[in-house]
Automatic annotation (TrEMBL):
<feature type="domain" description="Major facilitator superfamily (MFS) profile">
    <location>
        <begin position="25"/>
        <end position="398"/>
    </location>
</feature>
<feature type="transmembrane region" description="Helical">
    <location>
        <begin position="177"/>
        <end position="200"/>
    </location>
</feature>
<keyword id="KW-1133">Transmembrane helix</keyword>
<feature type="transmembrane region" description="Helical">
    <location>
        <begin position="150"/>
        <end position="171"/>
    </location>
</feature>
<protein>
    <submittedName>
        <fullName>MFS transporter</fullName>
    </submittedName>
</protein>
<feature type="transmembrane region" description="Helical">
    <location>
        <begin position="287"/>
        <end position="304"/>
    </location>
</feature>
<feature type="transmembrane region" description="Helical">
    <location>
        <begin position="90"/>
        <end position="114"/>
    </location>
</feature>
<keyword id="KW-0472">Membrane</keyword>
<keyword id="KW-1003">Cell membrane</keyword>
<dbReference type="InterPro" id="IPR036259">
    <property type="entry name" value="MFS_trans_sf"/>
</dbReference>
<feature type="transmembrane region" description="Helical">
    <location>
        <begin position="347"/>
        <end position="368"/>
    </location>
</feature>
<dbReference type="InterPro" id="IPR020846">
    <property type="entry name" value="MFS_dom"/>
</dbReference>
<dbReference type="InterPro" id="IPR050189">
    <property type="entry name" value="MFS_Efflux_Transporters"/>
</dbReference>
<keyword id="KW-0812">Transmembrane</keyword>
<feature type="transmembrane region" description="Helical">
    <location>
        <begin position="23"/>
        <end position="42"/>
    </location>
</feature>
<feature type="transmembrane region" description="Helical">
    <location>
        <begin position="310"/>
        <end position="335"/>
    </location>
</feature>
<feature type="transmembrane region" description="Helical">
    <location>
        <begin position="62"/>
        <end position="83"/>
    </location>
</feature>
Length: 406
């Protein structure tokens, strides 16, 4: 069997750039991730005014969230393979530019069909950009900075949830939903300029074909475990979290406090991201298990206890810490599970992540309609805790090691 302990020589050369320029490039990619995730989630806070303006129901307007999630799941491997011979800087620049243009198109759209087409393009941008950005830290900063740089990049995901979406919703409330989309579009174009200016050329690791995707899944047991735990945790989280607002409303939490509590969740998520970044170098398996326990405990506590503002805040802090640790922890697991095929493994991960978002919302909606709102918490908790036996059963020598080369 071919050794996978060390990356090929061309990767080793690419991972020794100027630290200053490398970190500037990391910040540019982080801005891109922030803009992309804000763009993907922005319609959540603006469904009613968009539906009213374009004369469609809120249920139909919700396709603005569903479409990019499903497209991103397909686009992640497709873009990775289709661009296998192209400079990664150019690919990332084109994807973030397409996102910016699509949002500007949405801002000026006069029909819902045009908006959905723009959201389709945004899905391509999200899937492609994320699948490549997940491995980009390996190529831009010295090896001993990789884990920290990866945490910074995926801190953009959490920052989008705590700052981007609320700020975009506020802009929409004050200046109209078209203004909100235009602002996010301009932010994407700013990220494009930053990447063009500060990011060095990043040659592809190797020519990759569609056969590389099932091959990396088949030949690396740690990749299979990583995909499985991504499915369980992300599906479980979004099964429950999609409906956290009606859950809190049902429990008597004042409408004015819900946005504050979600802000608390987001801040805890940012903290969880960087706490995990400090832990995963030496304790990757333990961090994954800790995420599973925190998410399950938070969902169960929200399901069984009587709530006041302080108890809900405490539960959401636990939940936010657990979920905030997911992006950097799971991405690090995947990258180190297949160190000689990082882009192929990352594209599979991003595909499963986005598919699980859509599946979680679907499962949660069916549960709410057929059972009760609280049922989504139990479903989400059960899915999250199933990670423990899967990860716990792995032999120690097969657990990815971020502190080793690759």
């Amino acid at each position: 069997m071919t050794s996978v302990d060390f990356p090929p020589p061309d990767v080793a050369r690419d991972t020794s750039p100027s630290p200053v320029r490398g970190w500037l490039a990391i910040l540019a990619v982080t801005l891109g991730i922030f803009a992309l995730m804000t763009s993907e989630l922005l319609p959540v806070g603006l469904l009613t005014p968009i539906g009213t303006a374009l004369d469609v129901s809120e249920g139909t307007t919700a396709l603005m969230v569903t479409v990019p999630g499903l497209v991103a799941a397909v686009a992640a491997p497709l873009v990775t393979v289709a661009t296998a011979r192209i400079d990664r800087r150019l690919v990332l620049a084109v994807l973030i530019g397409m996102m910016g243009a699509a949002n500007l198109a949405s801002a000026f759209a006069t029909s819902f069909a045009v908006v959905l087409l723009a959201r389709f393009l945004i899905g391509i941008s999200v899937g492609g950009f994320w699948s490549l950005a997940g491995a980009i830290a390996l190529r831009l900063v010295p090896k001993h900075h990789v884990v920290r740089a990866t945490a910074v990049v995926f801190g953009g995901v959490e920052t989008a949830s705590v700052l981007g979406v609320p700020a975009g919703t506020l802009v929409g409330d004050l200046g109209g939903w078209r203004t909100a989309f235009a602002v996010v579009g301009v932010l994407g174009l700013i990220s494009l300029v930053c990447m063009v200016v500060v990011m060095p050329k990043v040659a592809p690791e190797r020519t990759m074909t569609f056969g590389a995707l099932p091959r990396v899944f088949r030949t690396h047991s740690a990749v299979r475990v990583g995909i499985a735990m991504t499915f369980l945790v992300i599906t479980g989280h979004f099964t429950a979290y999609t409906f956290v607002r009606p859950i809190l409303q049902h429990d008597g939490v004042a409408d004015g406090m819900i946005s504050v509590l979600l802000l608390v969740f987001g801040i805890a998520g940012i903290c969880g991201n960087f706490i995990a970044g400090a832990l995963i170098t030496k304790r990757l398996r333990q961090t994954v298990c800790g995420i599973s326990v925190l998410l399950t405990a938070a969902m169960a506590a929200l399901a069984v206890t009587d709530h006041n503002t302080f108890s809900v805040a405490a539960i959401l802090i636990v939940w936010g810490l657990g979920y905030g640790a997911v992006p950097v922890t799971f991405q690090t697991w995947i990258l180190n599970a297949a160190p000689t095929a990082t882009e192929a493994a990352s594209s599979l991960y991003v595909s499963m992540f986005n598919l699980s978002i859509a599946l979680g919302a679907l499962v949660g909606g069916l549960a709410v309609d057929t059972a009760s709102t609280v049922s989504v918490l139990w479903i989400g908790g059960v899915l999250a805790i199933l990670v423990l036996p899967i990860v716990g059963a792995m032999p120690r020598h097969r657990v990815p090691r971020p502190d080793l080369p690759g």
